[in-house]
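testing teh design pipeline on a random one, pls ignore if ur not involved
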């Protein structure tokens, strides 16, 4: 049998069930992240057999990696929950609208951070120049509100 068909994720057979530790390892997260996703309803918690360990399907690793990639793009877990509902790929328009909105939020954040950077550079320059001999311009600015 072709090894690509048999092994889907980091040496895990496609038909092999995973412990939570193996799921975490193959997904690049820690066990507590898996548990947190379960508490948030992003990942289903399999039933625990009597005296045994919960076993996850390899598809769970795909889902965890989806969640992590979405977070890396700036989506909150609440937004990720919405994306997971659109994961079937048939809701491209809705997914695009969510991504466009996220891009607008990120661009606004970049503008805010750029403004903050300019202000801090100016305050640091004032401080370095010693323009105010008795008071620190950074402290004085933070104090006046």
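output:
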């Amino acid at each position: 049998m072709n090894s690509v068909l048999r092994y889907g994720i980091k040496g895990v057979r496609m038909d092999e069930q995973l412990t939570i530790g193996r799921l975490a390892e193959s997904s690049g997260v820690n066990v507590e992240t898996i548990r947190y996703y379960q508490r948030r309803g992003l990942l289903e918690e399999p039933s625990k057999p009597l005296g045994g360990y919960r076993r996850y399907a390899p598809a769970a690793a795909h889902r965890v990696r989806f969640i992590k990639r979405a977070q890396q793009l700036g989506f909150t877990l609440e937004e990720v929950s919405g994306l997971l509902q659109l994961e079937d790929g048939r809701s491209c328009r809705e997914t695009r609208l969510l991504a466009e909105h996220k891009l607008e939020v990120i661009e606004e954040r970049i503008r805010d951070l750029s403004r903050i950077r300019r202000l801090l550079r100016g305050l640091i320059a004032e401080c370095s120049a010693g323009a105010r001999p008795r008071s620190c311009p950074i402290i004085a600015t933070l104090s006046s509100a």
